[in-house]
Automatic annotation (TrEMBL):
UniProt name for this protein: YCII-related domain-containing protein
InterPro entries, alphabetized: Dimeric_a/b-barrel (IPR011008), Sec-metab_biosynth-assoc (IPR051807), YCII (IPR005545)
N-terminal signal peptide: none
Domain YCII-related: 10-85
Segments crossing the lipid bilayer: none
Coiled coil stretches, renumbered: none
Source organism: Kribbella speibonae
Family of the protein in this entry: Belongs to the YciI family.
Pfam families: YCII
Alphabetical list of PANTHER family matching this protein: PROTEIN YCII
Length: 92
């Protein structure tokens, strides 16, 4: 397994659409958390984006997960950063 950090940048012109889709997005994230695929997630307090940490087999699995996120077809974000992460102090 590998951990990846994904930083999303929200499209401010699509805020209303993002808020409309957000309940489905959060339900999807809750399912990923229950399956052990999502380690941590949350928006920045200024609502310009979010940070997510995934625990997946590889980048291909992560990209599949991102493609299935309700935010993706809604086109309300862009990926600012997608990087494999090597935690020095892991989440407990």
């Amino acid at each position: 397994m590998a951990q990846f950090v994904v930083k999303l940048r929200f499209d401010v012109d699509q805020t209303d659409r993002r808020l409309e889709v957000r309940p489905a997005h959060r339900e999807y994230l809750a399912a990923l958390k229950a399956d052990g695929k999502l380690v941590a997630a949350g928006p920045f307090t200024d609502q310009t984006g979010a940070l997510l940490v995934y625990d997946v087999a590889d980048e291909a699995e992560l990209r599949d997960i991102l493609a299935k996120d309700p935010y993706t077809p809604a086109d309300v974000y862009e990926i600012a950063t997608l990087a494999e992460w090597q935690p020095l102090f892991p989440f407990s």
